[in-house]
Amino acid sequence: MTTLITGGCGYIGSHTLVNLLEQQPQRDVLVLDNLSNSSETALQRVSELVGRPIELVVGDIRDKDTLTRLLKQNQVDTVIHFAGLKAVGESVNQPLDYYSNNVYGSLVLLEAMQEVGVNKLIFSSSATVYGTPKQLPITEQAPTGGIMNPYGRTKWHIEHILQDVCTAIPDFTAISLRYFNPVGAHSSGRIGEDPKDTPNNLMPYITQVAVGRRPRLTVFGDDYDTIDGTGVRDYIHVMDLAAGHSAALERLSQIGAGFHAINLGTGRGYSVLEIIRAFEAASGQRIDYGIGPRRSGDIASCYAANDKARQLLNWQATRGLDEMCTDAWHWQQNNPNGYT
Ligand code: NAD
Ligand code: WQD
């Protein structure tokens, strides 16, 4: 039996493949990716790291014929669904692209799975579904919604679609992994995060300043109600996040049918200034920065309660902030222009 990985050439997909094939070498995998935000080189490097070829089908999750054929021909029994668009700012200007790739794409995938009888799915959700949290740390029981941008709303809609599918198909199992802030890279420095344009997220922006691609970082606001006024987030090493997927895949059959939302975070928050200082210490590089206005839609603080992941997946993050920064820098230093 085979696991289909949609979006497997991307940042989180590529790291997950490395962890998964190291942990479960007997597993067959197949990647479907339209390469809209990634490079085939990432998958070649994953193959080098794990010492085996990985089949890539270049195609779109919205192409149902391709999907049904792949599911049938490869006897797929599980799907890890990473494919989608993820830039918050872009989603405000191009909402239809986001609803099409993320929501419609997930619908087509679910239709194909239903047609072929594949009933196990792991979905890439996000802490963004919690909107502005009322309590910290955020548990999975916290209310969702009140989301400020189309990207976040696509994740929220897809979670509801998955819940409805689980109600309609009693033996369908969906694990929705709500990621906090993935950062870092594989320790080899061979794979990592490679934003196509100006990075939207803090860590890749910092590494691009460090490597000389950007002159300086703007810190978005220092007047939040936090330890030093800057935003606090739960940064998680991408290899820990990857291990969370392997754990979820291993437990898909025992966890019980239905919809399971599970946070993947460390449970600890750091401010923007703490991240800058940790990165400077880990890399030996000075990060030039200035304080700017708040970014529209940002919240003050966000970090995860991770008891559910510990209980249901027997998983917890093991890598600290120093390792996140060291590995992010190692990747950026070795690949100043990403995969190109
Ligand atoms: P990424 O852009 O690096 O990877 C997504 C992959 O999906 C890319 O390889 C892209 O080419 C592919 N893709 C996009 N649309 C597709 C389509 N219609 N058909 C086929 N392939 C398509 O992003 P990532 O950081 O690896 O994120 C993976 C998933 O996790 C996404 O769904 C994202 O929304 C979610 N997520 C990411 C973060 C984060 O901070 N990186 C946080 C929470 C959730
Ligand atoms: C972190 C902190 C910023 C850039 C986003 C999405 C979320 C998820 C992860 C996909 C905040 C500050 C940032 C910069 C800064 N993605 N910052 N200067 O906003 O927590 O989450 O990515 O699902 O949905 O919303 O992450 O890395 O953008 O920001 O000061 O140039 O860094 O204000 O406090 P965020 P981020």
UniProtKB/TrEMBL annotation:
Pathway: Carbohydrate metabolism; galactose metabolism. Residues 4-264 form the NAD-dependent epimerase/dehydratase domain. Its cofactor is NAD(+). It catalyses: UDP-alpha-D-glucose = UDP-alpha-D-galactose. Keywords: Carbohydrate metabolism, Galactose metabolism, Isomerase, NAD. GO terms for biological process: galactose metabolic process. Gene3D superfamilies: NAD(P)-binding Rossmann-like Domain, UDP-galactose 4-epimerase, domain 1. Its EC number is 5.1.3.2. Belongs to the NAD(P)-dependent epimerase/dehydratase family. This is UDP-glucose 4-epimerase. The lineage of its organism: Bacteria, Pseudomonadati, Pseudomonadota, Gammaproteobacteria, Alteromonadales.
